[in-house]
């Protein structure tokens, strides 16, 4: 499949026809946007904008989303903008409306079939599938070590998925002498050909030793067993070179624009 065909499929299945990404959340469709709404601990935001969105309609759409989320009492929500979204100045219009841009990431996609070969782990490191609350705690600790950010929201979302929709969620943690050094997740989207890879953060002292690659291969095998065709990743500059070497194709960039109410 050519990159433009892959991007069109991604837009159609994962954005325009997005499914809720967890229990207790809903996807709402309006003429010009598709958005997800949940609790304050869930991801809330706009996932798709109409490809023919023009300068007049976009102003109304932005104002409507701000009114909608703030009316629900949410302190923040995100507008996920892709580099091919229209109008071309969508990002600038969001900034003018009070949104703040976070660092952009690269959208990568690869066929599952080419990623399932086992990767060698460093000596003393093993992978553990996350299937219970104790495993979630290990994954959260790995996340906090790798990224230096609070893992409370991750804990909430992982526990909810394991309890109410385990068939759509895969998580794994890498342990060195019983201590978590890396963790990763995979979100499965029934009815689509895509599985999304998230996390993959590794503690500083263990980077560059093949753990990230092993986590991708582990999840790719599970995705293949469940019939998914593609893996999708929103990658930082740190991960992008590894993904390119593994055969992922860059389809564009995605930038989170976050609207926060005044404290």
TrEMBL record:
E.C. number(s) listed in UniProt:
2.3.1.-
Q: Name one Pfam family in it.
A: Acetyltransf_1
Which GO MF terms are attached to this record?
Answer: acyltransferase activity
User: Cross-referenced SUPFAM superfamilies, in alphabetical order?
Assistant: Acyl-CoA N-acyltransferases (Nat) (SSF55729)
The N-acetyltransferase domain sits at 125-263
Q: What class of enzyme is it?
A: transferase
Cite the entry's keywords alphabetically: Acyltransferase, Transferase
Name it: GNAT family N-acetyltransferase
- The species this protein belongs to is Streptomyces silvae
Q: What is the lineage of its organism?
A: Bacteria, Bacillati, Actinomycetota, Actinomycetes, Kitasatosporales
């Amino acid at each position: 499949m050519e990159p433009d065909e892959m991007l069109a499929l991604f837009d159609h299945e994962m954005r325009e026809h997005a499914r809720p990404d967890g229990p207790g959340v809903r996807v709402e469709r309006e003429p010009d946007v598709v958005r997800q709404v949940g609790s304050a601990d869930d991801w809330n935001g706009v996932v798709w904008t109409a490809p023919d969105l023009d300068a007049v309609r976009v102003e109304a759409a932005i104002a409507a989303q701000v009114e909608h989320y703030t009316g629900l009492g949410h302190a923040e929500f995100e507008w996920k903008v892709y580099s091919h979204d229209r109008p071309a100045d969508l990002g600038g219009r969001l900034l003018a409306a009070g949104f703040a841009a976070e660092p952009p990431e690269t959208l990568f996609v690869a066929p599952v079939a080419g990623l399932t070969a086992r990767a060698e782990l460093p000596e003393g490191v093993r992978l553990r599938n996350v299937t219970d609350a104790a495993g979630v705690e290990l994954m959260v600790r790995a996340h906090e070590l790798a990224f230096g950010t609070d893992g409370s929201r991750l804990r909430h979302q992982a526990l909810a998925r394991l309890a109410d929709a385990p068939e759509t969620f895969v998580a794994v943690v890498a342990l060195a002498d019983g201590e978590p050094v890396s963790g990763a997740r995979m979100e499965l989207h029934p009815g689509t050909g895509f599985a999304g890879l998230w996390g993959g953060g590794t503690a500083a002292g263990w980077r560059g030793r093949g753990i990230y690659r092993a986590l991708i291969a582990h999840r790719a095998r599970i995705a293949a067993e469940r019939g998914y065709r593609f893996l999708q990743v929103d990658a930082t500059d740190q991960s992008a070179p590894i993904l390119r070497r593994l055969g992922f194709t860059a389809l564009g960039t995605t930038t989170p624009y976050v609207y926060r109410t005044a404290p």
